[in-house]
Inverse folding.
DNA sequence: CCTCTTGCCGAAACCGGTTTCGGAAACTTT
DNA sequence: AAAGTTTCCGAAACCGGTTTCGGCAAGAGG
């Protein structure tokens, strides 16, 4: 028996033809690897002529450094990490493709890649993130859906690993973020409804664990105040981010002695729940009561009447987040990497001047109940 | 001036605390790196006792091999590549989150990761793929949306790089795939409609460049034949995969002298276009004419009446694809890695026995046109 | 003309692993 | 007891890059 046989594993991929390595480039020009490496990486102690010869030779030979070979010395894998939480409920996330497109596009532009992973639970996300960190599969992370108190943030901050948040958080020390000014959107929504003549405007907030929810409530309150309307705590319902929850919230609002003639929703999906209520009760959205929401999901366009909403540009968000993260990994201080962008109003048919006063609406609803 | 200064770059991340390397584990036990490596990688020339001591020490010290450090010797980065084409039209892909969840879950289970990238055009995909291949960012690739003649397949096959397709292709040599039996679904759809009493059943196919389109047409034809119905070429429209195209296709069918009383759509989204036609003409879907489609997008549930459709399990698809790909990378022959799965019928309200005969429907439509 | 810089590059170490090779010790076999 | 096998592990090379260190040659300054 031959002794040179491997004792077990080893099943190296049968490379069709060997890669072009840095040594090949060096040999081709009669210089050393180190010279090639420095020339290609912008060191200043290389003569301009040499640099040119080297980069041309590299080009000609089709040399591509292996990022994992570089990583072993530099500690950088040139990859961004993205861990998504995919719950069963809202796994159908329409923005996702756009968001990912934005992230990968910005990464590609710098010749970086994106390592993606998913988990179902919050804990799962946490574990997956740790695994990626431990194996150093990415140089930094993009954290979507930031919570007010976010364990991911705490973990990464403690280990001094670069990250950017999509959304803001309670304690911003050492954090970078990109976020949409949801508070401005809700303020504008309320103002718009007020100027249409609505006197009682309600708000259905999003999940209370997320920062955005609080911000949008603030915006709603500010809008009321600016319009000189009083702030009735009863007009803010329990959080609702699903169809069903939105439906329930709408019903509870219309059941009030003095129901609102307009409802702002922190989230489109919840707003679509209101359509079911309207259909059920025979009310017309946009006249009997108005709805303005936030997100800009495609279903909103197909609803009848179309949902007036503040749309966020997910692709741009992904793009900016990746860009900010790369900058941070390259050394920019996190505090300098913070961006806010506005949501854009998409005017459709779900809002308009109120046909009825709150009292009239209440009476009308009572009539409907009887039949 | 100190000479030890770097001439330019070098900005190594200030590691909080040094990683545990294989050398640390070796020193801890007084053995060599090579022993640790072989023990941890299942070589047979390591005493069982030693293996145990080593793996326990590794565990205790929290040792995690860096995959990129391994990759430099083994040529494997333990990562799956996924390049998505995100066109503007259908960037909102509801399955995507599920699909990605499936892929990443299966990858994680084997301690692999997923490298994701996107491009807008077919050429862009091609280029992105090449880049990932050249830099060896992944050991193999998952190709969604396979075309009958697919350049990605040709390129990867030529370079002998592992890949699996979501969908089938014209020339299957050296190919692995996972696919849903769309042909069976369409056959079943046609059979179902025939058994409900429909005599004229149309089909709106998907994009002709994709294999699935041809297969579904085949299924539709088989279904007609099995039901003893004649196959009229005029009942197969131009391809339609969007809302608008589906609407146009539906209109053209209803405009016929002898219109179909049932339409099968290769794609849900196109089927939703039929709803607009129905609303426009005051027809009732499910009685005036029936619709059965394929895909199982969430919007189908919200349509009125709900869209009867054959749903595909995207999550499972992603899961299986990743699993097959990993097997292939580990050495299984591609030809042995082929799987087909059925779509599952979701019965909702868009189909049912025809209220009218084709002739009556035609007359009815003519009446509507006049007014 | 001699020393001091400076510019530029080669030699060699290094990064964290894997794999080859060979040899000492233990175990069989004759 | 000698010779042949096995078992198990250490030494060292290797993978493809990056970075340090030092030295030669050319130019600057005295």
């Amino acid at each position: 028996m031959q002794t040179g046989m491997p004792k077990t594993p080893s099943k190296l991929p049968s490379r069709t033809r060997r890669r072009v390595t840095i040594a090949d480039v060096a040999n081709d020009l009669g210089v050393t690897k180190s010279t090639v490496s420095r020339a290609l990486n912008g060191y200043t102690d290389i003569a301009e002529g040499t640099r040119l010869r080297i980069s041309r030779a590299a080009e000609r030979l089709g040399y591509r450094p292996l990022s994992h070979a570089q990583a072993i010395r530099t500690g950088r894998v040139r990859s961004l990490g993205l861990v998504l939480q995919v719950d069963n409920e809202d796994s159908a996330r329409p923005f996702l493709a756009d968001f990912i497109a934005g992230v990968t596009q910005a990464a590609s532009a710098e010749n970086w890649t994106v390592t993606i992973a998913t988990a179902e639970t919050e804990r799962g996300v946490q574990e997956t993130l740790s695994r990626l960190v431990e194996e150093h599969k990415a140089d930094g992370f993009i954290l979507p859906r930031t919570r007010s108190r976010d364990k991911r943030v705490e973990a990464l901050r403690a280990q001094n690993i670069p990250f950017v948040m999509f959304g803001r958080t309670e304690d911003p020390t050492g954090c970078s973020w990109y976020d949409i000014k949801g508070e401005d959107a809700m303020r504008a929504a309320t103002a718009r409804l007020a100027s249409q003549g609505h006197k009682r405007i309600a708000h259905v907030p999003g999940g209370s664990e997320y920062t955005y929810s609080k911000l949008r409530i603030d915006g709603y309150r500010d809008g009321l105040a600016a319009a000189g309307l009083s702030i009735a705590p009863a007009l803010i319902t329990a959080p609702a981010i699903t169809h069903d929850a939105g439906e329930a919230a709408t019903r509870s609002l219309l059941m009030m002695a003095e129901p609102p003639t307009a409802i702002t929703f922190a989230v489109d999906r919840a707003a679509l729940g209101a359509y079911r209520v309207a259909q059920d009760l025979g009310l017309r959205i946009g006249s009997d009561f108005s709805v303005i929401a936030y997100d800009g999901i495609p279903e909103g366009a197909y609803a009848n009447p179309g949902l007036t909403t503040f749309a966020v540009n997910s692709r741009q968000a992904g793009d900016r987040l990746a860009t900010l993260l790369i900058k941070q990994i390259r050394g920019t201080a996190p505090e300098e990497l913070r961006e806010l962008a506005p949501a854009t109003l998409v005017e459709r048919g779900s809002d308009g001047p109120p046909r009825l006063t709150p009292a009239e609406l209440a009476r009308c609803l009572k009539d409907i109940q009887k039949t």
Summary: The CA atoms of residues 66 and 187 of chain A lie 50 Å apart. Residues 1-6, 10-15 of chain A have pLDDT under 50 and may be disordered. Residues 3-4, 6-7, 9-10, 31-32, 34-35, 38, 45-47, 50, 71-75 of chain A lie near DNA strand C (CB under 10 Å from a C1'). The first strand of chain A starts at residue 79 and ends at 85.
